[in-house]
Amino acid sequence: MERDYLISWKAAGISLGLLLILATALVKPLGVSTQFVVSDAAVIHKVAPEFAEENAYLAKYGVKEDWGVGYGWLLVIGMFVGGGIASMLSRKQQPEQDKGSMPPMWKERFGDSMSKRYMAAFGGGVLLLFGARLAGGCTSGHMISGVPQLAVSSFIFAVTGFGAAILMAKFLYRSRPGV
Q1: Secondary structure element (H or E) that encloses residue 131, with its range
Q2: 148 — phi, psi (to 5°)?
């Protein structure tokens, strides 16, 4: 069954690429999780400047005129607003589904508990974000900005992230003996 989407994946990809070029030219490469680090560091620099300067990680952020303190939050808010708008628009494009529907594969393996599904998604997101920050960036920064700039840490994150996702999916959805 072919779906009639509001925008094709090709047009969305090209639009994202053009947006990335524009953002990088006007401000700097996109990245979201850094915004939280920048904000935390800015507060710590004000409250406990000695601690912030002695900490190698915090010393890099939250000082001078770091773009993230102002524009970065607009990006974060814009992602929530844009995601909400896209969700509302795409909901009209999808066939009728009962509330709380889940992929059959998930239901078969883990049951139909929405809270369990949300907790799994949240936990996976936390692990993904932790790995991305460990690699010196964030998921959007590495995948959308870092890979096109040929950043080694972004390639390492991409390969590791996709590899771990494939292994985890194979583990979670493996065949169970006797079922």
Answers
A1: helix 114-134
A2: -60, -25
Is residue 130 within 8 A of residue 37, CB to CB? The reply is no
Taking the C-alpha atoms of residue 178 and residue 158, their distance in angstroms, rounded to an integer, is: 36
Tokens in use for 6?
């509001």
Domain spans in the chain, listed from the N-terminal domain onward: 1-96, 102-179
Measured at the CA of 81, the angle between CA 14 and CA 157, to 5 degrees, comes to 55
Highest mean pLDDT among 11-15, 24-28, 71-75: 11-15
Q: Which helix (H) or strand (E) holds 22?
A: helix 9-26
Task: Output DSSP code: residue 145.
Answer: I
Judge if pTM exceeds 0.85: no
pLDDT one-digit tens code per residue, 121-155: 899 888 877 877 777 677 777 787 888 888 898 89
Q: What is the pLDDT of residues 36-76, one digit of tens each?
A: 777 888 888 888 889 988 888 778 776 655 544 566 777 77
Q: Please give the Cα distance from 121 to 143 (Å, whole number).
A: 19
Q: What is the reported pLDDT for 94?
A: 56
Tokens standing for 169? 């999916």
Residue 57 half-sphere exposure, CB side, CA atoms within 13 Å?
10
User: Residue 111 — left, alpha, or beta (φ > 0 → left; ψ -120 to 50 → alpha)?
Assistant: left
